[in-house]
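user: Kindly work through both lines:
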Amino acid sequence: MSVKKPSLAIYLHWPFCKIKCPYCDFNSYRKVNINQTHWIKAYLQGLELWSSKLSKRNITSVFFGGGTPSLLHESYLELLLKKIDDLWGINSDCEISIEANPNSVSSKKFKVLRDIGINRVSVGVQALNNIDLKNLGRDHNKNRAIKAIETIKKCFENYNLDFIYGRQFQNANEWKDELSQIIFLEAPHLSLYQLTIEENTHFYKLYKNDLLKGLPSNKLASEMFDTTRNLCEKGGYKQYEASNFAKRNFKCKHNLSYWKYNDYIGVGPGAHGRVKILGKKYATEEEKNPDLWFKKTVSLQPYTPKLTLLSDRIAFEEKLIMNLRIYEKIPISIFDKKKLDQVLIELVENNLVKIDVNKIVIKEGGKSMLDYISRCLIDCY
């Protein structure tokens, strides 16, 4: 009888973009002329290094993120997938995703991507409003976005559209109308994020100097969140995570690995991971600076990404926060009962959670209060 291999999701981070959006806090860099042959050697080496540590794994998903990984030549993407297959094996159920911007979408290229094994695409549209697209620093317009979506729809059954709401000077009715247009596109998966002002972004610099005008109030943001949930539900989408909505059988397997706190590794500059080795959970982190990451990864000296052993409490906190994002039922048994009893009384009285067969279940009223609920529950460790 064969022993079932533990699952592993693989994230490959390509940090380069043609533009750097003012709201983006990802480890990405505006760089046009790149020697891709030179860089791919490091990714192949990085995969081999991980395979030496995590050899017997069942690969559930591969995700090319960034940056703009769709700028990579198809032959290099195929080379990376072949390496993963050689090292671990890719089965027919494996979800293989790539992020793309509308301007990097062409019928010829995406047919090739499909043929080499990629079976899911995530398109960063962000808005269906040309003024807002310009304000968000995007290099496409609404018509180009629609054309890209139509191209992808012909090549792929499984794809996602990314949008941002709560944009500058956007009101509730405008978002409602735009979301209706988005739903009309009939994508199988939607990622709908509220604009957040993150440190180390151009928007943050503007915000700190009181130069970023027209951001929504908390009340308006909450109203937009409720509108998003209600319209998506009517449109046949299930909200399976705070910002993610899917039609039946189209939940993102890769992201579920994160939210269910399953094992995943990140390969590429600044990529993170969480893996269990010999029964202990570790945080993994690769060198953030792309040039340093390259030098370390292709070095003749064995390079090991930074591994940090997580304490039981930290692992508990991380898993709890991730599970709450997908509204997982949380077993009461994992908490300190004395600490939990009073907290549960308050959460139940406020109609945020309910108890179902010794498990904590998030109610509709609690879905917009996840941060508060998680803070309450973390204190009950």
Summary: Residues 7-258 form a domain with the TIM Barrel fold (CATH 3.20.20.70). The chain is about 40% helix and 25% strand. The chain has two domains: 7-258, 311-381. The longest strand covers residues 90-100.
